[in-house]
Amino acid sequence: MTDQPAPSTAPAAAAGAAPGVAAAGALASHDDAQVLLRLTDVHTYYGHIRALQGISLEVQRGEVVTLLGSNGAGKTTTLKTIHGLLHPRKGTIEFEGHDITRTPAHELVRHGIGQSPEGRRIFSRMTVLENLQMGAYSRPDKSGMKADFDRVFGLFPRLAERRSQQGGTLSGGEQQMLAIGRALMTRPTLLLLDEPSMGLAPILVEQIFAIISDINRQGTTILLVEQNALMALGVAERGYVLQTGRIVRSGAASDLLNDPEVQRAYLGG
Ligand code: ATP
Question: How many C-beta atoms lie closer than 10 Å to residue 265's C-beta?
Fold first, then answer.
């Protein structure tokens, strides 16, 4: 987490929610200058299937914000919609004050939105080094690449040791590190992470979350999709809970952790 001031939480508490937890889709009143990403009433469809039914959320500069929800709630769809892989049928997306609702994915990378997708999607026949170079491919300045390799290898010493190994022969945890490292090579202002802990042993989950905190401390804002709600709320400042395409809860991570409904549904309480 960063040293930035904690954002205010939404004023209205949800019925039966812990203090500070807001009802469906309510937005905290954030200082506009600090808002990096803003979704307003976003509706996304797959054909006639309405996957997002009016999502509104904000991410402030310097924050880690987590998006929680069960299988099929719409978490990945939200990230894909932000990243221009899907376009909303209704609603707007703003990044750094610019409307990016219809901006294609490859342009968003140049604007500073990086993503590490669900299921990792690394290039299995390429080496670790080549995978990272692919990440840097679309960046505007090539001059800072050495510093970025150093940053990635500093965060993930394991990748440095295995720089000549083919991506497909890395372990699951190492592949996850590579996917995050590749996203960092684009020097994102905002990093979208989709289920970074998926399929990892508990010890590796701890490591990945520690690295997520390090990345954020180095100045990268993060929107984190996770099923591991406990870990996600541990690193995040704030969170949103998605249910069948709608936000049903939002608030400070500490308040969500104490929310009986969140505990029951996502924390095994
Ligand atoms: P998970 O945690 O299981 O990955 P999720 O919260 O990320 O779930 P999404 O993948 O965003 O959920 O899916 C949201 C809804 O959209 C689901 O009902 C899903 O079946 C549907 N959906 C997702 N992708 C497609 C697609 N390509 N075509 C049709 N429907 C889809």
Answer: 18
pLDDT digits (tens, 9 = 90+) for 104-162: 988 898 899 998 877 667 888 999 999 998 877 766 666 778 888 898 999 899 999 99
pLDDT value of position 147: 85
The reported pTM is 0.87
**The domain spanning residue 84 has which CATH number?**
3.40.50.300
Q: Is the CB of 38 under 6 A from ligand 1?
A: no
Ligand 1 pocket, mutate which of 43, 76, 85, 242 (most atoms under 8 A from CB): 76
65 Cβ contact list (under 8 Å, min separation 6): 57, 59, 222, 223, 224, 236, 237, 238, 239, 240
Q: Which domain holds residue 251?
A: 33-121+190-266
How many angstroms is it from 158 CA to the middle of ligand 1? 33
